[in-house]
Amino acid sequence: MSEAPASSSGFSLSDRLARLVDVRPGEGPALAWSWAYIFALLASYYVLRPIRDQMGVAGGLENLPWLFLATLIGMLALNLPFAWLVKRLPRARFVPLTYRFFILNILIFSALIALTDGETAVWVGRAFFVWLSIFNLFVVSIFWATVVDVFSTEQGKRLFGFIAAGATLGAICGSAVTATLARDVPTWALLIAAAVLLEAAVFAMRGLARLIGRLHEVPEDSRAGEVIGGDIWAGIRRTFASPYLLNIALFLALFSITATFLYFEQAAVAKNNFPSRGAQTAFFANVDLAVNALTLGVQLFLTGRITRWLGVGVTLALLPAASIVGFAALALSPSVASVVVIYVLRRAGNFAIARPVREVLFTVVPREDRYKAKSFIDTVVYRLGDQVGAWSHAGLAALGFGGHAAAVVAVPLSAAWLLNALWLGRAQARRQDAAKQDAAQQEAAQLAAQADDNPAPLPPRPA
Description:
The protein has 15 helices and no strands. It is mainly α.
């Protein structure tokens, strides 16, 4: 019987994956479940995202700052109940509960969209815009908190880029579904499809949780069945008490402010160039498709290698450095093409490089911070940055300045962001070295204690 081609060439599929990703023995199943988890999560979100963007345009560009303000208030309101769940329940329970709460929300919006029209439909669209802007940060933050809790710093540098590729593949599929069906399938039906995908993410999360104990380098405090504890205010308090966490928050805030400038310019492009609702939704979906196609190639082949070559700090600094160049170009030559190109390249750089590497920063913080402080930073701080960006953009417009003025302001902000990224890289390295020293000291102490409990036998007495 002839052998399969993979065997005759000397490499199985797992061998090829190991060469591509640098996956080590015992990590493959957890990596696969992580991929399935984030794939389903991002496919669900990207089915919904173009619908949200179209509803934001339909509600009036002048109202977007108010929608961003409502989103921030919603983030603040939701953080405390989530912190209470983290305090009272083990991860294996509070994560599915959170996701199923959002599934219920999706089904309610599906019914409202199907049953309303006219001015009522516009207000439902505004509510959906705010809700999805809360949903996407919460569900993705919970995913990365779970993954950071599972993998070590060393594993994160090797694997997080590849795991993020699962997010991109899911985003591509979700965007493609909406871009293909938006003109012919009712919006409420697309929402139901998104709810099914979110339930699939819950299934994958449970599969990942069952494999946690089998990983070789899982941190010892990463136990899915144990309650994290603490208090519900810990995420806020610990963020402001720690220079390290505060600088992570600053990193995300500066990204969010500059991203909001670009988002408003993209929304204006859609409103001014695509008259119908379906055409606007398809435009947003096609932009997302371009972002995610570019992101996927970088994540599969470059992210892990770039992180190992350059280190965490320099890798984090790549996106702010590119933003300086992009915003300077936009300030000098504002046009539809330049807005779309810079928007696509910047978002791809964030998803492919900055986001997975930023998650490595949380592998050197206590477990409570991975869920509470991280959730606060990923949601409230991010949306606070949206607020600053939204109202700054509105203020510049009220003063009579065009989109190029926001680009001019974004250049020095990106420069500050670059310095912040380099500081974070050095701080992460110091924390990782300190953790290794502590682990070595604990191991030495354990060996010494074992030696005291089992003293060496005395040599035999001479005859």
